[in-house]
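Quick one from the shared queue. A colleague (R.T.) flagged SRPBCC family protein as missing a structural entry in our internal table.

Convert sequence to structure tokens.
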Amino acid sequence: MMEKPYKFTDVMVKGAFHSFSHTHEFIESGNGTKMIDTFIYKSPFGVLGNIADKLFLEKYMRNFIIDRAKELKRIAEKEK
């Protein structure tokens, strides 16, 4: 799904997760643009996947998205 230039969503077609979608929203703010990332995923392997999610995957995914956003910000704000 894409709503240029405000929002787009990546949806996993095939991969390691049972399901995965990642929405990127861009909102004008007083001094630039604010990016909001929302991701929804379901771990594979049923109950075992749910246990792995609670033990480590949820924290890993949150940190991955935060680190990625910081790098995108750095690139976007880099002087040309």
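The mean pLDDT is 88.
Residues 48 and 54 are 10 Å apart (CA to CA).
Added to the table.
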